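Hi C.,

You asked whether I'd gotten around to modeling the 889-residue construct. I have! Everything is below, sequence then structure, no commentary in between.
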Amino acid sequence: ITQWQKPTPLVGRTYMEQENDWDRDLLLDPAWEKQQRKTFTAWCNSHLRKAGTQIENIEEDFRDGLKLMLLLEVISGQCRLPKPERGKMRVHKINNVNKALDFIASKGVKLVSIGAEEIVDGNAKMTLGMIWTIILRFAIQDISVEETSAKEGLLLWCQRKTAPYKNVNVQNFHISWKDGLAFNALIHRHRPELIDYDKLRKDDPVTNLNNAFEVAERYLDIPKMLDAEDIVNTARPDEKAIMTYVSSFYHAFSGAQKAETAANRICKVLAVNQENEHLMEDYEKLASDLLEWIRRTIPWLENRAPEKTMTEMQQKLEDFRDYRRVHKPPKVQEKCQLEINFNTLQTKLRLSNRPAFMPSEGRMVSDINGAWHKLEGAEKGYEEWLLNEIRRLERLDHLAEKFRQKAAIHESWTDGKEAMLTQKDYETASLSEIKALLKKHEAFESDLAAHQDRVEQIAAIAQELNELDYYDSPSVNARCQKICEQWDALGSLTQSRRESLERTEKQLESIDELYLEYAKRAAPFNNWMEGAMEDLQDMFIVHNIEEIQGLITAHDQFKSTLPEANKEREAIQAIQAEVQKIAQYNGIKLAGNNPYTTITPQSIDKKWEKVQQLVPQRDQALQEELARQQSNDHLRRQFANQANMIGPWIQNKMAEIGRISIEMNGTLEDQLTHLRQYEQSIIEYKPNIDQLEGDHQLIQEALIFDNKYTAYTMEHLRVGWEQLLTTIARTINEIENQILTRDAKGISQEQLHEYRTSFNHFDKVRNSFPSEEFKACLISLGYDGDAEFARIMGIVDPNNSGAVTFQAFIDFMSRETTDTDTADQVIASFKILAGDKNYITAEELRRELPPDQAEYCIARMAPYTGPDAVQGALDYMSFSTALYGESDL
């Protein structure tokens, strides 16, 4: 009990030897000799009067040794000491005193510098020293309070008894008693009806002291051994005189020790119950907070509302990373701590013979594990959805850009085509012009057919964007619809113009074959160049080195065709050059450009130059992408190297922990030390996990979605790491609970090893086995019968989980062989405090118990309703029974 501080034990010599330095004390303060003489004389007379005699002068009356021997017979309980010598001679007196001193020495008292001659000669200091030695041996030495005895025990007894009283602080046996309040507090604590303590004043010590001395002499049969004025007027009262007088109070009130012991038992039981209540409240709050966090988090993880842009989805991915790195780890620790607290609470309840703790509905460990499993399921699905959404948006952005490029090229090509197809120039054209228009129209139709694939590609891309739920699908659809409608209109107009030209074809002469040949060869070549430029500017997306190398190979193949294309260009240009040569040779003035095509030699050369410029740009883009893929491949290898090392490491550590917990090498403390060192080595491995998390973040930022170099994913390693931390924490908690059980139940190391050996024999899985295996184990231990088995299962498996843990097995075995506090013992303790009554009052509880535990009992005890009940009577029997049964306590 923290408010009572035990005195510092004496070191070096025994207490008796240190207290025998009485002569030195008297030399320090002569006033103490007067106090000792009065106190010792009164103390001796309180015992000698039982033999019908008294003393007046302590050194004179003990000189012949007769009354000294009589005093020793009375206080020691001996029938007779050796027969004294009745002679008047000095030798007779010395012999009698020696017999008395020999008797004192036979009681284990070492007499220092005290001889029979000094006593016979009337040496006051020696006589007082001898009497003090007798008082120490027979009145003080046997005092024992808790783990202290003699002076320390007497001081602790005074401190405990006077602790509730204001202005009283007993720290010694001199100045702490000068104001007289401590004496009055001792009397009031045991006989409150004798003293009105509240009327005493600290500034009136003489009145206080005389009041205590008179009450003690009148009602407690304790003679007045001190003088109030001597105590008040002395700076430091004599310690031995105070101790002698206070020891008389101790022996007078020794009968109250039985009630004090009973109060201690109740305090112990109530303290255990209060601690368990605090643990239950802490578990309920922690479980409630964790379940609330899981309840709030799961809807966020189950939200699958997609974002429109890549930036928004990447922000969601970054939020998810923060959740995994910042928000979840503390909750993992809380969950682990919750299980440890629950196991520790159940162990303490079993050790204190209390019913198992049943959390509120929905807050069992199994409920929390279920909610956690659901959280992890939602978490895994959420990450997969995020990555799929990012892939989808990346694909959508690529398709949308491709759609815009192809649509822009097509719209640029169709610009002015409707106006060209609707003009009526053939109505006023000459035959040669008509033929030229017809050939030109054929070239246009060839060009139109070549663009059919592009229109189909545009429509296919728009359809794919719709199927992938592109956020800007309405504008894409509108543009695609416009292109398709325009394409249909061009088809109709092309057919209508052809019919018009064919109606007049018979009237036209054939036109220049060279122009026609130029047009026919220039059109596909121009279309090839446009396609080449489109392909060279086309965006690409790859995910590995093989894909980019495939594109580089295809590009190299395209470059290998450029010499042949250049020859075709030169051939087409040669046709135009031939036309110019013939016209110049024959003096023909050409009227404008080639009537069969709008493709001029200048446009061909310009596009060819454009192609020549795009080729090295394409080379550079492909090489940059190759470098990026090589960097991605390095990131894959870097992650794989770490993962392939960490994964087996975690698996090996899990296996080693399981082996350590089963093998039981050394004592439980050795195992606990080994496991904590093992736990520290695991914690020190955490930087490797953090480094792997950093590599994983780089991989995700690089949008790498696969890794052929390892079968481990970050998710698997995170789960393994969390399981490893949880397993080592649980294993350490199991060993701590085993130590707690061993110490509380007094189980030896050999017994614990025997329990583990028996448990391991039937244990098919680590640290628990099903009820059937447990039944076989009980049969091997001598238990039989289904009813007996059902009773035992109710003890070791109160939650009906169907499995028996090693901790429950130890609790059962220790319970079968040891004893604990019972309700009957607590009832018996309350009955002592109540003075053998069937009820107890609030006043009695407050007097015998510490304030907090007294109020605890008063608040929870039901009123007593028996036939002998009085006003304010409390039922301590039902309260004690409830401590060990089903109740709200």
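If it helps when you're writing up: The two ends are 23 Å apart (CA to CA).

Thanks,
B.
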